[in-house]
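Our collaborator T.R. sent over the components below with a one-line note: 'Predict the complex.' Nothing else. No constraints on interfaces, no templates requested, no preferences about which chain binds where. So this is a plain run: every listed entity goes in together, and whatever single assembly comes back becomes the starting point for the next discussion.
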Amino acid sequence: MDYLYFPGCTLYTKAKNFDQTARDCSLLLGFQLKELPNWTCCGATFPLATDNIMALLPPSRILARAREEGTTLTTLCSVCFNVIKRTNRLIRNDGDKRDTINNFMETNYQGDLRVLHYLEILKQDVGFPRIQEKMKKPLTGLKAAPYYGCMLLRPFEEMEFDDKEKPTLFEGFLEAMGAEAIDFPYKIECCGSFQSVGSPEVATECGYKILGSAVKNGAEVVVSTCPLCTFNIDHKQADIKQKYLDFKPIPVLYFTQLLGIAMGLDYQTLGFGQNFVDPLPLLKGKGFI
Amino acid sequence: MKIELTREKVHNEFAKKVELISGQNLFACYQCGNCTAGCPVAFAMEVGPHEVIRYTLLGLEEEALAVNTFWLCASCLQCTSRCPKGIDIARVMDALRMVILRKKDRKDHIHVSEFQEGFLEKVPQIAFISGFRKFLS
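Returned assembly:
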């Protein structure tokens, strides 16, 4: 089965490793990500001011174009997923806004697409037992901390992804790969998001707390689903290290990179060069590569 | 902070404006402080989100708009998700930003020209796009 796929801007530049590994893994799992033609930026924030209809247009345009191609739309980036899924729901439920948007864009989109995150495909359509069967190098003995962040989960009523305080989907996925999922209290806390532009020192603090909590609970690697989270908890480790002398760097991987390792992809195709903290010593030490 | 309440302040249109932009009923707030307790960036805020709501309800426009609280909000929706009165507090924080950014003088919160060298190359575009939408008029 093929899934219509919206990559989003960052997956074409600073998170190429996320995009490529997801495409490679999907082929091994028996489905293909079919890239949406002529996609544009999703706007990267769902507008919270109720009168800001202009900011709803980019995700609406993506949705309207995707509807011409199929009935489901998949994303990898948590922020894109959040913006597109919330806009889709708004178009479906708010007749006034739907008319305004459709009249402006000269489209007739009714909000009837199924918007899915890649992890949901793995859970619902592929199924964790099938992933377990596909393991060539199970990640036995790897203590991995699943970092959900905010955008996958909140607002809970609109995202319908998992429990708002105690999600378990990501843990199930890691366990299907043979890894030990580390539970830690900061798994649903914010990484600082766009504050890395507005108040970088605040985002540094958020990153320090999240990583510190993961390490304290025994994690050897933190697993992420979002290029913005990854920037804040991986690339910002340089700033964290500068501020906190006791801080020890910990590798942060995209979940698709781990899946790639476990399904036996050549590690040189997994784009580890784009990860800030080098995960190779850990992965070699564990005998996965 | 010393606060002076006057009849004019309490009866101004500020709270109504914030309610209109955010679409939230601020008067539902009973000041439990759950939003502030769960906020991941509250440590850097001058006053907590629940206090800004209180300022707004009292019509203290100048005081409410002078604090850094809503500029630090990362729209992570933890407060929204936990508010026992169902107020979408992230929307209230966004509305406060909008009250400032939509004024005639268009006072931006961040200035691209002040970014350090190499910053634009380092940070992913997703952070810039969402940041600019929150901080620029």
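Summary for T.R.: The mean pLDDT of chain A is 97.
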